[in-house]
Amino acid sequence: MKIKKFMAPNMSEAMKQIRLELGDQAVILNSKVVQRKGFLGFMKKRNIEVIAAVDPDAGKNGTVQTAPAYSLKTERGEKPARAPDASVRSEKESLKKEIAELKKVVREVSKFANPAYQKYPLPVQKRLNSGSQQGLDESLLLEIGDALYEEWEKANGNLAEEEILKQAKALLQKKLSRFTYGRGRRKYVNLIGPTGVGKTTTLAKMAARAVLERKEKIAFITTDTYRIAAIEQLKTYANLLNVPLEVIYKLSDFKKAIDKFSDFDRIFIDTAGRNYRERQYVRELSGLIDFQAEMDTFLTLSLTMKEKDMKEVVDSFQSIRIDRFIFTKLDETSTYGAAVNLMEQYGKGCAYVTNGQDVPDDMLEATPGIFAEYVFGENGK
Ligand SMILES: Nc1nc2c(ncn2[C@@H]2O[C@H](COP(=O)(O)OP(=O)(O)O)[C@@H](O)[C@H]2O)c(=O)[nH]1
Ligand SMILES: [Mg+2]
Predict the structure, then answer these.
(1) Does a structural domain hold residue 112?
(2) Pairing of β 349-354 and β 324-328
(3) Same domain, 275 and 305
(4) Distances (CA, A) of 295 to 186, 189, 265, 322, 327
(5) Quick one: which of 214, 248, 275, 308 has the fewest CB in 10 Å?
(6) Which atom of ligand 1 is nearest to the CA of 356?
(7) What are phi and psi of 372, to 5 degrees?
(8) Is the distance from the beta carbon of residue 125 to the nearest atom of ligand 1 less than 6 Å?
(9) Is the Cβ–Cβ distance between 250 and 281 less than 8 Å?
(10) Which residues contact 83 (CB under 8 A, 6 or more apart)?
């Protein structure tokens, strides 16, 4: 008995090979569909593996092969036994399935038709695509793509989508970990940034937590004297928290306030942040306060802003030493990539993100992990 394994793209091709090598007497013992990893692992090749056998003595004594699954000998016009029908049917079925799968792949590929991602396996492309929908910079995505691709190869292409998602998050989290996060420990907390982004509200949230959670002795200082309403707004929070507020009109007022609050734990400084004069003013402050040792300056930006505008704001504040960002209004958007891009571009972390108008609840102390979750997690679908 001679047994041999054949591999062909389809059954009729396999038959040809078998007939050629083993002759008409050959019988098929087994056949199955096998997937072979194709180019880059994502265009899988489907092959039929057929095990066929021939008994060289069979013709001589006229014995019939025991229970052949499929005899090739049909030249006398006999109908093959049932088995071939079943096998043809199952081949038809699997072809149908294959066509459906191919259609799905084509649909997916056209969805991810970013040419820059085409070098990656499909599940990696899919992840990068969702990052791209979140507005993450292309260069960062390609970096993540390369790292995911490496993992994919290490695993011989056996990486489930959930695993790729987990790794994408972990990669981003690790990358962002080189910056500093959280509220900081310095005595003066200064919020700067464009009007309307939520500086005063965020400052109130931070102050309320300092008082309620950490029992700190705090005070407010505001330099936003452009609008009466702005002072009233902060006064309301100061009254609610029962803490003092000083309104600063000129630099000497600031000096007085610093003396007055010398034994306080933390001073929250609100600014209007609207024009050059304000920036000049903050710069002058550096003559009074040792920024490096005593002041945390957080540049506040709303994620509802256009990324280009956000960058212009950061550039316009370049003359001021900024420690970290605060990103507000996450509840009003579903794309968070800009926050990550800014941190990457300017090499700074984030103190807080805010996600609503409620004081003090709608605010989270930032970590690299929350950004990874926002851009690759459920939020970022
Ligand atoms: N939806 C939403 N609104 C916010 C958030 N933070 C602040 N706001 C609102 O944005 C508006 C401007 O806030 P304000 O603190 O006065 O901004 P400022 O001009 O930067 O001081 C107010 O109506 C706030 O209630 C936030 O995280 N989410
Ligand atoms: Mg304000």
Answers:
(1) no
(2) parallel
(3) yes
(4) 5, 6, 12, 10, 19
(5) 308
(6) 28
(7) -60, -40
(8) no
(9) no
(10) 68, 69, 70
- Residue from 192, 201, 333, 361 to probe ligand 1 pocket by mutation (most atoms less than 8 Å from CB): 201
Q: Is the pLDDT of residue 28 over 90?
A: no
Residues 121 and 210 in one domain: no
> Which domain CATH number covers 248?
3.40.50.300
Query: Measured in angstroms, how far is the CA atom of residue 366 from the centroid of ligand 1?
Result: 18
Q: Is 356 in the pocket of ligand 1 (CB under 6 A)?
A: yes
Q: For position 71, what pLDDT does the model report? A: 47
In this structure, the answer to whether residues 97 and 122 fall within a common structural domain is: no
Atom of ligand 1 nearest to the CA of 362: 27
What is the arithmetic mean of pLDDT over 353-365?
Answer: 95
Whether ligand 1 lies within 6 angstroms of the CB of 355 is answered as yes
Last residue in a domain, options 83, 105, 127? 105
Q: Determine the distance separating the centroid of ligand 1 and the alpha carbon of 184, expressed in angstroms.
A: 22
If you measure from the C-alpha of residue 180 to the centroid of ligand 2, how many angstroms do you get, rounded to a whole number? 25
Residue 26 and residue 57 in one domain: yes
Residue 9 lies in a domain: yes
Same structural domain, 344 and 201: yes
Mean pLDDT value of segment 84-105: 80
By CB atoms closer than 10 A (0-12, 13-18, 19+), residue 78 is: exposed
Question: Does 182 map to a domain?
Answer: no
Q: Ligand 1, atom 14: nearest CA belongs to which residue?
A: 198
Domain membership flag for residue 181: no
Closest listed residue to residue 268, CA positions, set 165, 184, 189, 366: 189
Same domain? For 123 and 26 the reply is no
Total number of domains in the chain: 3
Ligand 1 closest atom vs CA 193:
20
Q: How far is the CA of 275 from the centre of ligand 1 (A)?
A: 19
Same domain (yes/no): 96, 236: no
Nearest listed ligand to the Cα of residue 225? 2
pLDDT band at residue 113 using 50, 70 and 90 as cut-offs = low
Judge if the beta carbon of residue 205 lies within 6 A of ligand 1.
no
The reply to whether 253 and 320 lie within a common domain is yes
Q: State the residue for tokens 């006999």.
A: 78
Give the range of the structural domain holding residue 364, as residue numbers without chain letter: 188-380
Helical residues (DSSP H) of 23-81, grouped into ranges = 58-61
Verify whether ligand 1 is closer than 6 Å to residue 331 (CB atom): yes
Question: pTM for this structure?
Answer: 0.72
